[in-house]
Automatic annotation (TrEMBL):
Domain Ketopantoate reductase N-terminal: 5-148
Gene Ontology molecular function: 2-dehydropantoate 2-reductase activity
Family of the protein in this entry: Belongs to the ketopantoate reductase family.
Catalytic activity: (R)-pantoate + NADP(+) = 2-dehydropantoate + NADPH + H(+)
Gene Ontology CC annotations of this record: cytoplasm
Function in brief: Catalyzes the NADPH-dependent reduction of ketopantoate into pantoic acid.
NCBIfam families (alphabetical): apbA_panE (TIGR00745)
Source organism of this protein record: Flavobacterium granuli
Full protein name: 2-dehydropantoate 2-reductase
Domain of life: Bacteria
EC number, UniProt record: 1.1.1.169
């Protein structure tokens, strides 16, 4: 009996990792990869496959199925969720017929509240915690571009069966995905959230890419203020982040391609809906909850909320 894995959301993250899985298991009689897509993306992938472009290669992959019809998709053993955070409920509710009692969800979102939100929709299913580090984006429908060589996927759970977690890790390893099954996953997810929240907020607020922020002292100061505020909240919540988390996060930023920016900033520039609620407003609300002042996050929220509502 085949292990069936659905990839929901074929953007920079879902498209890239889903593409690696589809490529690795194209001829497999044990693992089947299903792309859950609609509209132009579905049409392009059905006709021409999913193209993945890296700094030194191009490849085209075809999943076993590409569809948004639950009757065509069928029951899934794992659902890897990689839509935008504002689409969590809207994208997952229509897949009710694809979810069996043993279906496991792997959320690859930018925020830290996805596991809780998915569990509210499917309370009887295991929902893992996870995060990824990667610079990748949609170049056009059905085409994913990855910049740089850095890519890591971390996942774990306090509740899911160890056999299922080990099986998923094996599936990733055999697809040449650099993945880590970790025990202290909530700390790991928050460590990533510190990085992505501050970066998304700073790039979108300043309208600058990574290199421009690093090369301007005033922009660096904004970024560091954001880091100070979010790490204070993490500490009050009792999360065990590294003592030098701020320095580590700045070093991560320095290793990020300097012409790159956050996905939220790209969405702001394109005039698209963007993840303000999960990446910026969430921190402000946590600050209010734990009585931690977040003046820089509040400045960012105030400015970007005007854009979001316009």
């Amino acid at each position: 009996m085949k292990t069936r894995i659905g990839i929901l959301g074929l953007g920079g993250v879902g498209g890239y990792f889903g593409g690696l899985l589809a490529k690795a298991y194209a001829e497999s009689d044990k693992i089947e990869i299903v792309f859950i897509a609609r509209g132009e993306t579905q049409k392009r992938i059905a006709e021409s496959g999913l193209k993945i472009i890296t700094d030194d290669s191009e490849s085209i992959v075809f999943p076993s199925i590409v569809s948004d019809d639950p009757a065509v998709i069928g029951k899934l053993d794992y659902i890897i969720c990689a839509t935008k955070t504002y689409d969590i409920e809207e994208s997952l509710l229509p897949l009710e017929k694809c979810v069996a009692k043993n279906t496991i969800f792997l959320p690859l979102y930018n925020g830290v509240d996805a596991t809780e939100r998915i569990s509210a929709l499917y309370p009887d299913n295991e929902v893992l915690q996870a995060c990824v580090y990667i610079v990748s984006m949609i170049e056009s429908p059905g085409v994913i571009k990855k910049i740089g060589s850095f890519e890591k996927l971390f996942f774990g759970s306090d509740l899911a069966p160890l056999s299922k977690l080990n099986a998923l890790q094996t599936i990733f390893k055999n697809a040449a995905i650099e993945s880590y099954f970790v025990d202290n996953i909530e700390d790991t997810v928050w460590e990533k959230f510190v990085f992505i929240s501050a970066l998304a907020s700073a790039t979108s607020y300043l309208d600058q890419n990574v290199g421009e922020i690093l090369n301007s002292q005033s922009s660096r100061n904004v970024y560091v203020e954001l880091l100070n505020e979010i790490t204070m909240i993490a500490a009050v919540k009792g999360l065990k982040l590294p003592n030098d988390i701020i320095m580590q996060t700045i070093l991560k930023l320095e290793k990020t391609p300097h012409n790159a920016t956050s996905s939220m900033h790209r969405d702001v520039l394109a005039g698209h809906k963007f993840e303000l609620a999960s990446l910026t407003e969430f921190v402000v609300n946590e600050g209010l909850k734990y009585e931690i002042e977040t003046p820089m996050y509040q400045k960012v929220l105030d400015k970007l909320a005007v854009i979001s509502n316009s």
